[in-house]
């Protein structure tokens, strides 16, 4: 990647969903190689931000810009964003009866490979590749032959997201509360998945409620999202402060002008 | 006179013209059975939409089509036609029926599996009248107009018997093919399938055509499962897009027998299937699965009745519809639980997927319960592809077209997956996929829905 161009540059982003404005002028810059944590109260717009980045049709961007590696992200279809290296680990992974997990992941990987001009993997090669990744995220191979997320436990669904991330090796991973509801072992799996991808040319946005995950995935920056804007940005010590004080102190304070790190 | 009346008069007078010719072709005992059938048809006539069972299906088009219920015999199908149609499956064992008549010269000459008897019904009813006559001489079958018409003009069809305790390894495959230039012909075929005590079999009824003509397949299949018998019946209709297809299945199940129907409706301008399953003895298990895929201006109608007439019966019914273009689907499923049928367990479900704005479905699942100790459920849904699932796939890099196709195939796949025999399942999957990938349907399954704001 060319020097100095950030991985992601969001300016003045406003977005509506379900008839209401949810994001109200959000600014955020994520540099290459950085991990940013986003925290914030329920309903503050964290998932909406993740949805804007991945291109969910039901979220409408009304103002602002999003540049991904210097290119306009918002004009790309969701599948093209994925092929360009954006990955969203869903807060609520979707169950898809009738579509096998293995078939789906192979289709996803091959779509990205074809886009990069690489040869597509056949069933055997895919399986070999997937096995290594399954080991990394301690994924039960039996789940690979089931329908996507169908009847998976909450933890299995989250592991499935991390497995997909490990397989697709994104440039920009967005994890939407992937740690919620996980025990400490599963949390470590999530952390391993993210840390394995850490490199100077990959970045991650980790949305979380708990500072716990940040002990394992140490962020370069922490932001607080409140009422559709970044209310506060800082280093990892901000996460500890939030853990102690909660968010209530933020809601009374007027939103700070976005501080790009 | 309405069109329907004119057509009715035409069929009745055609019978009078052909009665002696038909009589020459069959044993004497069949003549009065035919006569009773045409008399019943003359009373019933072509069904109008005032008839509740025909509320959503108009047969005016059939009545208008000037069809001949007793056309001269032709040998228009060649072995090459069959090979072209079946592709790699042509090397399997097939019993072929041309315009409803058994065609031994087109059928495989491999030996029959042990315990299996197959021949044309025309021949079988001469050899085994004691077995077949009571099945044909059933007044209750005449209450549906096209079944009555079939009774009047029936000549031939398939007779299949699996003898007591037999369990043939391979499925028994019957191919019903409309000949090239079948225009104007009605094939009134009658099939009889008998699975004797403790026998177990899988049978495929595959309806195909060698032409794009307007013809009418009017098929009636009677199935008897004796005590503890088991049958998977896979029926796939891929008639010409201009054809009319009407098929009636009458199933009698004796004690502890297990019947599974897998019915796939792909072709035809107007296709209707009627299934009547009577669970006559205790401990019977009946599964009715179905899939109808409509596009263009197709009209696909499925009528099913499961009649629990005895205790401890189980029935499961799952009919799925996928409709595109200006097609229309009709599902009318009823489950009857008679007073004696305590401990009945009956489920019925009809989910439908509409992939175009102009497609329509009329679905009416009904339950009529006269016993108190039963477990029954029924329902239907009409929907579009799940937008959340679609987004999930796209967010992983799967193109929208491919994602729509994947979800549509997934919706359909449940029915094929329930077929236990690998070779039949593969065959059905291939035919279903081919339909989903054909012409307009392919475009629509991949089209983005109008609500999609992108
Ligand atoms: N599709 C939608 N329809 C209606 N309301 C929505 C929709 N998406 C988000 N919202 C609303 O927007 C607000 C922010 O939601 P979300 O981004 O999910 O918050 P967070 O992830 O921070 O908890 C909430 O009040 C939520 O109810
Ligand atoms: Mg959220």
Largest interface: A-B, 32 and 26 residues
Largest sheet of chain A: 6 strands, mixed
Low-confidence stretches of chain A: 252-261
Q: What are the low-pLDDT stretches of chain B, counting only 5+ consecutive residues below 50?
A: 447-454
What's the arrangement of strands in the largest beta sheet of chain B? 2-1-5-7-9-11-13-15-17-19
In round numbers, the mean pLDDT of chain B is 93
* SS field, number of helical segments of chain B: 11
Q: In CATH, what is the class of chain A? A: Alpha Beta
Q: Let me know the number of strands of chain A.
A: 12
The overall strand count of chain B is 19
Count of discrete structural domains of chain A: 1
Strand-and-helix sequence of chain B, N→C? HHHHEEEHHHEEEEEEEEEEEEEEEEHHHH
For the residues shown, what is the average pLDDT of chain A? 92
The quaternary state of the protein chains shown equals heterodimer
- Helix-strand category of chain B: alpha/beta
Which class best fits the helix and strand makeup of chain A? alpha/beta
CATH superfamily of chain A: P-loop containing nucleotide triphosphate hydrolases
What small ligands are held by the chains? adenosine-5'-diphosphate, magnesium ion
Strand order, main sheet of chain A: write it out.
6-9-10-3-11-12
Commentary on this structure:
The complex is a heterodimer of chains A (261) and B (454). Chain A has 261 residues and is α/β, with parallel strands linked by helices. Chain A has one domain: 3-Layer(aba) Sandwich (Rossmann fold). In chain A, the strands form three sheets. In chain A, strands 6-9-10-3-11-12 form a six-stranded mixed β-sheet, with helices on both faces. A four-stranded antiparallel β-sheet of chain A has the order 2-1-4-5. A two-stranded antiparallel ribbon of chain A has the order 7-8. In chain A, a hairpin with a 2-residue loop joins strand 11 and strand 12. In chain A, helix 5 runs parallel beside helix 6. Chain A is globular and about 55 Å long. The two termini of chain A are 20 Å apart. Helix content of chain B is 27%, strand content 35%. In chain B, the strands form two sheets. In chain B, strands 2-1-5-7-9-11-13-15-17-19 form a ten-stranded mixed β-sheet, covered by helices on one side. Chain B has a nine-stranded mixed β-sheet with strand order 3-4-6-8-10-12-14-16-18. Chain B is globular, with a radius of gyration of 22 Å. Chain B has a domain of 279 residues. In chain B, helix 9 runs antiparallel to helix 10. By secondary structure, chain B is of the alpha/beta class. Chains A and B meet through helix 2, strand 7, helix 3 and strand 8 of A and helix 8 and helix 9 of B. The structure holds adenosine-5'-diphosphate (ADP) and magnesium ion. The site of magnesium ion has 5 residues of chain A, from helix 1.
């Amino acid at each position: 990647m060319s020097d100095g161009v950030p991985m992601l540059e969001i300016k003045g982003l406003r977005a509506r969903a379900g008839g209401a404005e949810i994001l109200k002028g959000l600014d955020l810059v994520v540099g290459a190689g950085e991990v940013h944590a986003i925290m914030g109260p329920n309903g503050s717009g964290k998932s909406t931000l993740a949805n804007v980045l991945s291109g969910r049709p039901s979220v409408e961007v009304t103002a602002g810009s999003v540049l991904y590696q210097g290119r306009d992200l918002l004009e790309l279809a969701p599948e093209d964003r994925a092929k360009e290296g954006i990955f969203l680990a869903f807060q609520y992974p979707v169950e898809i009866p009738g579509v096998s997990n293995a078939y789906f992941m192979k289709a996803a990987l091959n779509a990205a490979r074809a886009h990069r001009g690489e040869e597509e993997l056949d069933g055997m090669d895919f399986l070999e590749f997937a096995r290594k990744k399954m080991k990394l995220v301690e994924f039960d191979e039996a789940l690979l032959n089931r329908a996507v997320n169908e009847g998976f436990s909450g933890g299995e669904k989250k592991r499935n997201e991390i497995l997909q991330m490990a397989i697709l090796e994104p440039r920009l991973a967005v994890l939407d509360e992937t740690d919620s509801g996980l025990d400490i072992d599963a949390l470590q799996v999530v952390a391993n998945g993210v840390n394995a991808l850490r490199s100077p040319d990959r970045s991650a946005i980790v949305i979380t409620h708990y500072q716990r995950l940040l002990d394992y995935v140490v962020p370069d920056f922490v932001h607080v999202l409140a009422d559709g804007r970044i209310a506060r940005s800082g280093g990892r010590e901000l996460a500890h402060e939030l853990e102690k004080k909660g968010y209530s102190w933020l809601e009374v304070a007027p939103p700070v002008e976005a501080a790009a790190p | 006179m309405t069109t329907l009346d004119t057509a009715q008069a035409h069929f009745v007078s055609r019978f009078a013209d052909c009665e002696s010719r038909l009589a020459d072709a069959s044993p004497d005992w069949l003549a009065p059975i035919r006569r009773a059938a045409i008399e019943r048809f003359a009373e019933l006539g072509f069904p109008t939409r005032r008839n509740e069972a025909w509320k959503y299906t108009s047969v005016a088009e059939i009545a208008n089509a000037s069809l001949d219920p007793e056309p001269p015999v032709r040998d228009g199908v060649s072995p090459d036609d069959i090979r072209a149609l079946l592709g790699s499956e042509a090397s399997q064992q097939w019993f072929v029926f041309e315009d409803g008549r058994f065609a031994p010269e087109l059928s495989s000459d491999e030996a029959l599996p042990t315990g299996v008897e197959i021949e044309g019904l025309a021949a079988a009813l001469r050899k085994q009248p004691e077995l077949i006559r009571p099945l044909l001489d059933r007044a209750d079958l005449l209450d549906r107009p096209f079944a009555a018409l079939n009774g009047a003009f029936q000549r031939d069809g398939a007779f299949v018997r699996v003898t007591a305790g037999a369990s043939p390894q391979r499925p028994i495959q019957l191919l019903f093919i409309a000949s090239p230039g079948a225009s104007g012909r009605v094939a009134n075929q009658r099939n009889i399938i008998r699975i004797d005590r403790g026998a177990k079999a899988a049978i495929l009824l595959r309806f195909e055509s060698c032409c794009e003509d307007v013809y009418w397949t009017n098929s009636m299949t009677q199935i008897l499962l004796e005590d503890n018998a088991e049958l998977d019946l896979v029926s796939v209709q891929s008639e010409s897009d201009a054809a009319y297809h009407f098929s009636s299945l009458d199933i009698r199940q004796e004690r502890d027998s297990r019947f599974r129907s897998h019915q796939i409706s792909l072709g035809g301008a107007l296709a209707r299937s009627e299934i009547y399953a009577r669970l006559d003895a205790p401990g019977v298990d009946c599964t009715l699965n179905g899939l109808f895929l409509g596009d263009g201006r197709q009209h696909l109608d499925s009528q099913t009745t499961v009649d629990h007439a005895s205790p401890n019966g189980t029935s499961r019914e799952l009919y799925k519809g996928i409709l595109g273009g200006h097609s229309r689907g009709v599902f009318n499923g009823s489950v009857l639980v008679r007073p004696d049928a305590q401990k009945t367990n009956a489920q019925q479900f009809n989910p439908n997927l509409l992939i175009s704005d102009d497609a329509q479905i009329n679905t009416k699942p009904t339950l009529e319960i006269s016993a108190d100790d039963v477990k029954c459920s029924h329902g239907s849904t009409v929907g579009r592809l799940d937008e959340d699932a679609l987004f999930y796939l796209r967010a992983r890099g799967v193109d929208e077209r491919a994602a729509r196709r994947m979800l549509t195939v997934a919706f359909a796949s449940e029915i094929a997956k329930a077929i236990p025999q690998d070779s039949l399942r593969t065959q059905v999957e291939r035919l279903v996929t081919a339909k989903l990938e054909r012409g307009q349907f392919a475009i629509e399954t991949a089209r983005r829905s109008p609500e999609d704001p992108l």
